[in-house]
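May I ask for a single protein's sequence together with how it folds?
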Amino acid sequence: KESVRLHKINRREIVYGVSDLLEEAVYFEKIYNEITVPSGERFTVQLSDGTKAWINSESSIRYPVCFGKDKREVEVRGNVYFEVAEDSSRPFIAVAREIKTEVLGTSFEVNTYGDHGRVSVTLVEGSVKVYAGERTFMIRPDQQFLFDTCNGRMEIAEVKAVDKVRWKDGMLVIDDEPFDELVRKLERWYGIRIVNETGIVFNQSFRGIFERSDDIQVVVYSVCKNLNIDYIIEKDRIILTK
Protein backbone atom coordinates (compact mmCIF):
# COMPACT_ATOMS: atom_id res chain seq x y z
CA LYS A 1 0.00 0.00 0.00
CA GLU A 2 3.03 2.27 0.33
CA SER A 3 3.13 2.22 -3.48
CA VAL A 4 -0.02 4.33 -3.70
CA ARG A 5 1.05 7.95 -3.96
CA LEU A 6 -1.39 10.78 -3.34
CA HIS A 7 -0.34 14.29 -4.30
CA LYS A 8 -2.28 17.36 -3.23
CA ILE A 9 -1.86 19.97 -5.96
CA ASN A 10 -4.01 22.61 -4.25
CA ARG A 11 -7.19 22.74 -2.17
CA ARG A 12 -9.27 21.80 -5.23
CA GLU A 13 -7.12 19.14 -6.91
CA ILE A 14 -5.43 15.83 -6.04
CA VAL A 15 -3.51 13.28 -8.14
CA TYR A 16 -3.15 9.54 -7.56
CA GLY A 17 -0.07 7.58 -8.63
CA VAL A 18 0.30 3.79 -8.50
CA SER A 19 3.56 1.87 -9.03
CA ASP A 20 3.79 -0.98 -11.57
CA LEU A 21 4.49 -3.37 -8.70
CA LEU A 22 1.19 -2.53 -7.05
CA GLU A 23 -0.79 -2.79 -10.27
CA GLU A 24 0.63 -6.26 -10.92
CA ALA A 25 -0.10 -7.59 -7.44
CA VAL A 26 -3.04 -10.01 -7.91
CA TYR A 27 -3.57 -10.18 -4.15
CA PHE A 28 -4.16 -6.45 -3.85
CA GLU A 29 -7.57 -5.70 -2.36
CA LYS A 30 -9.31 -2.73 -3.94
CA ILE A 31 -9.70 0.25 -1.68
CA TYR A 32 -12.42 2.74 -2.60
CA ASN A 33 -12.38 6.46 -1.98
CA GLU A 34 -15.23 8.93 -2.43
CA ILE A 35 -15.10 12.67 -3.06
CA THR A 36 -18.23 14.71 -2.37
CA VAL A 37 -18.32 18.37 -3.43
CA PRO A 38 -20.71 20.75 -1.64
CA SER A 39 -22.78 23.53 -3.17
CA GLY A 40 -20.71 26.45 -4.44
CA GLU A 41 -17.51 24.42 -4.92
CA ARG A 42 -15.85 22.15 -7.51
CA PHE A 43 -12.94 19.72 -7.36
CA THR A 44 -10.55 17.85 -9.66
CA VAL A 45 -9.00 14.41 -9.20
CA GLN A 46 -6.59 12.50 -11.43
CA LEU A 47 -7.22 8.78 -10.97
CA SER A 48 -4.53 6.11 -10.85
CA ASP A 49 -4.82 5.33 -14.60
CA GLY A 50 -4.31 8.97 -15.57
CA THR A 51 -8.00 9.72 -16.15
CA LYS A 52 -8.95 13.18 -14.94
CA ALA A 53 -12.35 13.98 -13.40
CA TRP A 54 -13.84 17.42 -12.74
CA ILE A 55 -16.55 17.24 -10.06
CA ASN A 56 -19.16 20.00 -10.05
CA SER A 57 -21.13 21.40 -7.11
CA GLU A 58 -23.44 19.01 -5.26
CA SER A 59 -21.75 16.02 -6.93
CA SER A 60 -19.62 13.04 -5.99
CA ILE A 61 -17.45 10.28 -7.43
CA ARG A 62 -16.60 6.92 -5.87
CA TYR A 63 -13.55 5.16 -7.32
CA PRO A 64 -10.94 2.51 -6.51
CA VAL A 65 -7.47 3.68 -5.53
CA CYS A 66 -6.14 1.15 -8.05
CA PHE A 67 -8.19 -0.19 -10.98
CA GLY A 68 -8.37 -3.92 -11.73
CA LYS A 69 -7.04 -5.56 -14.90
CA ASP A 70 -10.34 -6.03 -16.76
CA LYS A 71 -12.12 -2.67 -16.37
CA ARG A 72 -12.04 0.77 -14.80
CA GLU A 73 -15.33 1.49 -13.09
CA VAL A 74 -16.44 4.51 -11.08
CA GLU A 75 -19.75 5.63 -9.56
CA VAL A 76 -21.04 9.13 -10.20
CA ARG A 77 -23.68 11.33 -8.62
CA GLY A 78 -24.50 14.82 -9.86
CA ASN A 79 -22.35 16.39 -12.56
CA VAL A 80 -18.87 15.08 -13.46
CA TYR A 81 -16.71 15.64 -16.55
CA PHE A 82 -14.09 13.06 -17.55
CA GLU A 83 -10.99 13.09 -19.74
CA VAL A 84 -10.34 9.35 -19.95
CA ALA A 85 -6.83 7.98 -20.38
CA GLU A 86 -6.69 5.56 -23.33
CA ASP A 87 -6.43 1.87 -22.43
CA SER A 88 -7.75 -0.56 -25.04
CA SER A 89 -7.56 -3.50 -22.62
CA ARG A 90 -9.66 -1.89 -19.87
CA PRO A 91 -12.85 0.00 -20.75
CA PHE A 92 -13.70 2.96 -18.53
CA ILE A 93 -17.22 2.72 -17.10
CA ALA A 94 -19.13 5.49 -15.32
CA VAL A 95 -22.19 4.23 -13.46
CA ALA A 96 -24.71 6.98 -12.72
CA ARG A 97 -28.28 6.38 -11.59
CA GLU A 98 -30.27 4.83 -14.45
CA ILE A 99 -27.44 4.96 -17.01
CA LYS A 100 -24.02 3.44 -17.55
CA THR A 101 -21.45 4.94 -19.92
CA GLU A 102 -18.57 2.91 -21.36
CA VAL A 103 -15.50 4.26 -23.19
CA LEU A 104 -11.88 3.39 -23.93
CA GLY A 105 -10.49 6.92 -24.11
CA THR A 106 -12.48 10.09 -24.61
CA SER A 107 -13.88 13.29 -23.03
CA PHE A 108 -17.45 13.32 -21.80
CA GLU A 109 -19.80 14.63 -19.12
CA VAL A 110 -22.34 12.78 -17.00
CA ASN A 111 -25.12 14.85 -15.45
CA THR A 112 -27.49 13.16 -12.99
CA TYR A 113 -28.71 16.22 -11.11
CA GLY A 114 -32.14 15.11 -12.29
CA ASP A 115 -33.54 18.61 -12.84
CA HIS A 116 -36.92 18.18 -14.54
CA GLY A 117 -36.41 14.43 -14.17
CA ARG A 118 -33.67 14.29 -16.81
CA VAL A 119 -30.20 12.77 -16.73
CA SER A 120 -27.71 13.10 -19.58
CA VAL A 121 -24.38 12.16 -21.13
CA THR A 122 -22.64 14.78 -23.31
CA LEU A 123 -19.72 13.87 -25.57
CA VAL A 124 -16.89 16.29 -26.34
CA GLU A 125 -14.36 13.95 -28.00
CA GLY A 126 -14.18 10.29 -29.05
CA SER A 127 -17.19 8.01 -28.79
CA VAL A 128 -19.13 6.47 -25.94
CA LYS A 129 -21.65 3.71 -25.47
CA VAL A 130 -24.56 4.47 -23.14
CA TYR A 131 -26.61 1.73 -21.52
CA ALA A 132 -30.08 2.69 -20.25
CA GLY A 133 -32.31 -0.15 -19.17
CA GLU A 134 -32.20 -2.75 -21.93
CA ARG A 135 -31.26 -0.23 -24.63
CA THR A 136 -27.82 0.80 -25.88
CA PHE A 137 -26.90 4.07 -27.61
CA MET A 138 -23.73 5.19 -29.39
CA ILE A 139 -23.16 8.94 -29.35
CA ARG A 140 -20.74 11.10 -31.32
CA PRO A 141 -19.01 14.39 -30.43
CA ASP A 142 -21.43 17.30 -29.98
CA GLN A 143 -24.26 14.94 -29.14
CA GLN A 144 -26.10 14.58 -25.85
CA PHE A 145 -27.99 11.52 -24.69
CA LEU A 146 -31.06 12.51 -22.66
CA PHE A 147 -33.12 10.21 -20.46
CA ASP A 148 -36.36 11.45 -18.93
CA THR A 149 -36.70 9.40 -15.75
CA CYS A 150 -40.35 10.46 -15.33
CA ASN A 151 -41.72 9.05 -18.59
CA GLY A 152 -38.84 6.80 -19.73
CA ARG A 153 -38.25 8.75 -22.94
CA MET A 154 -34.74 8.56 -24.41
CA GLU A 155 -33.30 10.71 -27.18
CA ILE A 156 -30.06 12.00 -28.69
CA ALA A 157 -29.79 15.75 -29.30
CA GLU A 158 -27.24 17.83 -31.20
CA VAL A 159 -25.50 20.30 -28.85
CA LYS A 160 -22.42 22.49 -28.60
CA ALA A 161 -20.66 20.21 -26.15
CA VAL A 162 -17.84 22.59 -25.18
CA ASP A 163 -20.41 25.07 -23.86
CA LYS A 164 -22.13 22.37 -21.81
CA VAL A 165 -18.89 21.59 -19.94
CA ARG A 166 -17.38 25.06 -19.53
CA TRP A 167 -18.21 24.86 -15.82
CA LYS A 168 -15.02 22.81 -15.40
CA ASP A 169 -13.06 25.91 -16.41
CA GLY A 170 -14.95 28.14 -13.98
CA MET A 171 -17.68 29.43 -16.32
CA LEU A 172 -21.41 28.79 -16.01
CA VAL A 173 -23.22 29.01 -19.36
CA ILE A 174 -26.94 29.83 -19.34
CA ASP A 175 -28.40 29.13 -22.78
CA ASP A 176 -32.04 30.12 -23.32
CA GLU A 177 -33.15 28.66 -19.98
CA PRO A 178 -36.27 29.45 -17.91
CA PHE A 179 -36.18 31.41 -14.67
CA ASP A 180 -36.50 28.38 -12.37
CA GLU A 181 -33.60 26.64 -14.09
CA LEU A 182 -31.47 29.80 -13.87
CA VAL A 183 -32.14 30.08 -10.13
CA ARG A 184 -31.28 26.43 -9.46
CA LYS A 185 -28.00 26.71 -11.37
CA LEU A 186 -27.01 29.93 -9.60
CA GLU A 187 -27.78 28.31 -6.23
CA ARG A 188 -25.43 25.40 -7.02
CA TRP A 189 -22.80 27.63 -8.57
CA TYR A 190 -22.52 30.09 -5.69
CA GLY A 191 -23.69 27.92 -2.80
CA ILE A 192 -26.50 30.26 -1.79
CA ARG A 193 -30.28 29.96 -1.63
CA ILE A 194 -32.43 32.23 -3.81
CA VAL A 195 -36.06 32.72 -2.68
CA ASN A 196 -38.69 34.27 -4.93
CA GLU A 197 -41.11 36.25 -2.74
CA THR A 198 -42.46 38.47 -5.52
CA GLY A 199 -45.53 36.31 -6.11
CA ILE A 200 -44.76 36.57 -9.84
CA VAL A 201 -44.32 33.60 -12.19
CA PHE A 202 -41.56 34.64 -14.57
CA ASN A 203 -41.85 33.28 -18.12
CA GLN A 204 -38.72 34.88 -19.53
CA SER A 205 -35.78 32.84 -20.82
CA PHE A 206 -32.20 33.80 -19.99
CA ARG A 207 -28.81 33.73 -21.66
CA GLY A 208 -25.43 34.60 -20.20
CA ILE A 209 -22.03 33.45 -18.98
CA PHE A 210 -21.06 33.77 -15.33
CA GLU A 211 -17.52 33.25 -14.10
CA ARG A 212 -16.75 31.67 -10.74
CA SER A 213 -15.04 34.90 -9.71
CA ASP A 214 -18.14 37.02 -10.42
CA ASP A 215 -19.74 38.38 -7.26
CA ILE A 216 -23.20 36.86 -6.70
CA GLN A 217 -24.56 40.34 -5.93
CA VAL A 218 -23.52 41.55 -9.39
CA VAL A 219 -25.17 38.54 -11.01
CA VAL A 220 -28.43 38.88 -9.05
CA TYR A 221 -28.52 42.63 -9.69
CA SER A 222 -28.32 41.96 -13.43
CA VAL A 223 -31.13 39.38 -13.29
CA CYS A 224 -33.36 41.59 -11.13
CA LYS A 225 -32.82 44.62 -13.34
CA ASN A 226 -34.02 42.64 -16.36
CA LEU A 227 -37.09 41.48 -14.42
CA ASN A 228 -37.75 44.92 -12.91
CA ILE A 229 -37.69 43.57 -9.35
CA ASP A 230 -35.52 44.10 -6.26
CA TYR A 231 -33.65 41.82 -3.85
CA ILE A 232 -32.47 41.57 -0.24
CA ILE A 233 -29.37 39.70 0.94
CA GLU A 234 -29.99 37.89 4.22
CA LYS A 235 -27.15 35.71 5.58
CA ASP A 236 -26.95 32.65 3.30
CA ARG A 237 -29.89 33.50 1.07
CA ILE A 238 -31.07 36.10 -1.41
CA ILE A 239 -34.73 37.15 -1.34
CA LEU A 240 -36.29 38.45 -4.55
CA THR A 241 -38.88 41.18 -3.87
CA LYS A 242 -41.09 43.59 -5.83
User: Anything to note?
Assistant: The longest helix spans residues 179-190. The chain has a mean pLDDT of 90. Helices lie at 20-23, 161-164, 179-190, 216-227. The first strand starts at residue 4 and ends at 10.
